[in-house]
Amino acid sequence: MSRTIIRGGLVITATEETEADVLIEDDTIAAIATPALAREWTADTVLDATGRYVIPGGVDAHTHMEMPFGGTFASDTFETGTRAAAWGGTTTIIDFAIQPVGRTLREGVEAWHAKADERCAIDYGFHGILSDVGDGVLKEMDALVGEGITSFKMFMAYPGVFYSDDGQILRAMQQAGDNGALIMMHAENGIAIDVLVRQALDAGRTAPKHHGRVRHPRLEAEATHRAIQLAAVAGSPLYVVHVSATQAIAEITRARHEGQPVFGETCPQYLFLTVDELDGPGFDGAKYVCSTPLRPAEHQASLWRALRTDDLSVVSTDHCPFCFAGQKELGRDDFSKIPNGIPGVENRLDLLHDAVVAGHITRRRWVELACTTPARMFGLHPRKGTLAPGSDADVVLYDPHAEQVLSAETHHMNVDYNAYEGRRITGRARTVLSRGEVIVHEGEYRGRPGRGRFLRRDTCDYLT
Ligand SMILES: NC(=O)NCCC(=O)O
Ligand SMILES: [Zn+2]
Ligand SMILES: [Zn+2]
């Protein structure tokens, strides 16, 4: 048996901050104790965490490695994307296996296993994406829940691609109400947006900034409201992904106050970037095309408030990188052809730590939003997302005083720009352990493709 001790750090979980040492036996946390009690421990490896925070590895519940979109594929493979995640202190991702239209969900899951298995540097799970709901798919959902794929994303946006109509959504929600799955919703009124897109293009408004204008916050709020009502009728829980607008938060807040099991996620891009990025020089705005879109700055105050009040409960990245050269450029003459998505899997923990420094959230809330709640929401807790005896030894030794400047020059994501280029932030993951193995240490990468394991997940911890 191999034994590792992490000595001298400040152990931070969602509920506690204590000066404590951590004992790891093989791939599991064996004990956490005060330095006085831990003095007797012996180990093969001792990691000095003096001056560092000791936190659980990040859980990013929303990534899209190699996702097909707009005639191209997200530029991070599972190999490059999970390596970048590890550099940034994230030790678990949950990616989305897409049901191809006209085919089975199982085919989508198998295709995702073919992309991810033997390639990931960290542990990984899958959600399903339902893009063609019918009787067969509803039955497949039941089987997949039994196999550890316990959440399914649906789209009220992107007609003709991933879109589901209200009847399909209601049926999938009814099924989820029965089998314990969690429906994740991309809530934007895609039918109305497509009308506005057509009108904009017909009027010659083809630049990236028009992406932000046609995707009105009210169309996010309307879809969020509709999804909440459908979930109430179906008797199912609901998790709204990438919430960006004040008006959508209000819908989620109201439903939660009425006791409905509705949860919301936002992403760093909505907290740190604004719609103004879409109006950058030349075609640069294309780098910031994502859906839901970036919003005017005033929405950020609502997002931070909702993260503090728990009306939004998770910060994931929606990591969906497309290179500017050759990929974002597909929409040079038509903003609707710009592949949607922003990179960020490497930067999430650091950006959120910078928000701790800025006073938006506390240290414990940082851990809760980035590690613990996503693990609980998607059936991985207490194995992931916390530091406790019996949990997987996914641990980050975090330097809260390190200064860094985010840049494509230094990041590890396979994409030719960084959405936060030049941003100076405080904090950095120095040492990262995944199941007891040191995979990043003081600027050296020690992981390898294929060491990450597929995670069969339980159902949502907030509903049992
Ligand atoms: N969000 C985004 O723009 N791209 C990824 C696909 C999605 O999550 O809708
Ligand atoms: Zn989406
Ligand atoms: Zn997404």
TrEMBL record:
Any GO CC annotation of this UniProt entry: cytosol
Similarity field: Belongs to the metallo-dependent hydrolases superfamily. Hydantoinase/dihydropyrimidinase family.
Modified positions (N6-carboxylysine) in chain numbering: 153
Listed InterPro entries: Amidohydro-rel, Hydantoinase/dihydroPyrase, Metal-dep_hydrolase_composite, Metal_Hydrolase, Metallo-dep_Hydrolases_sf
Gene3D superfamilies, sorted: Metal-dependent hydrolases, Urease, subunit C, domain 1
PANTHER family from the UniProt entry: COLLAPSIN RESPONSE MEDIATOR PROTEIN (PTHR11647:SF1), HYDRANTOINASE/DIHYDROPYRIMIDINASE FAMILY MEMBER (PTHR11647)
Modifications made to the protein after synthesis: Carbamylation allows a single lysine to coordinate two divalent metal cations.
All copies of domain Amidohydrolase-related, residue ranges: 53-415
Known cofactor(s): Zn(2+)
Residues spanning the membrane: none
One Gene Ontology molecular-function label: metal ion binding
Record's protein name: Dihydropyrimidinase
Keyword Hydrolase (UniProt): yes
Domain of life: Bacteria
Keyword tags: Hydrolase, Metal-binding
